[in-house]
Amino acid sequence: xxxxxxxxxxxxxxxxxxxxxxxxxxxxxxxxxxxxxxxxxxxxxxxxxxxxxxxxxxxxxxxxxxxxxxxxxxxxxxxxxxxxxxxxxxxxxxxxxxxxxxxxxxxxxxxxxxxxxxxxxxxxxxxxxxxxxxxxxxxxxxxxxxxxxxxxxxxxxxxxxxxxxxxxxxxxxxxxxxxxxxxxxxxxxxxxxxxxxxxxxxxxxxxxxxxxxxxxxxxxxxxxxxxxxxxxxxxxxxxxxxxxxxxxxxxxxxxxxxxxxxxxxxxxxxxxxxxxxxxxxxxxxxxxxxxxxxxxxxx
Length: 299
What we know:
Blueprint: H1 3-20, H2 23-29, H3 35-56, H4 67-90, H5 93-100, H6 103-110, H7 121-139, H8 151-172, H9 182-200, H10 209-236, H11 239-245, H12 248-259, H13 267-283, H14 285-289
Helix pairs in contact: 1-10, 1-11, 1-12, 2-10, 3-9, 3-10, 4-5, 4-8, 4-9, 5-7, 5-8, 6-7, 6-8, 6-11, 7-11, 7-12, 7-13, 8-10, 11-13, 12-13
């Protein structure tokens, strides 16, 4: 793969991070829809839209994948959300979110086991800076209190982090699987989420036009298109840069919430912004500052 193609794929993957940054804003606008029902609605809408697009463009044959591919994709998408929702239900949200947000760091670490990938010190430094910024942002500068009575939630948060980081890194080894297959993963995730909703939650549908609009926005971007662009990024782009840059999602999400009146700008948000931005630049220094060496003409 050429450097240009790798850079382009990385840029496409980064668009997923930007879309995930809208989760907080659109999630807040969706009202009191319970998590698994919201998951079922969003993945159902995005998966159905993608399925129709494949049908119109004559690409439905791309959904013909081995059973192990279907299992891998569905377990990756659904498993992450299942354990994340379990975590925030059974542990303090701040601590659960922080544990869950170790997944970008794990992506960078796990990438060392991929062929043709080299994990360098600046990747680790940049990602750890991002984790520090995320910790400051999520905790609000206050101390963390990990209680022994929340071990189920903490364990689920660890599982959610492992599921998404493993899914992202292992996708690299499945480069031959077309990104269009994600449409099927979304539909199956919607089905499993609906089952969990019926078993665990009370049905509360969006009540206003704004709430339905927020659900549609979630389905279109952070719980829809983002998974397709992320697939392209982790398969063909710079996976270490994507891992480090993922820490900008909670930061941008916080800034969006502040801009729309759901929060306030504090010194901790500013410090988190500095740490995450600096970490992303350090991790991506090869991509940003790379100098092409030219052979000197023979004398």
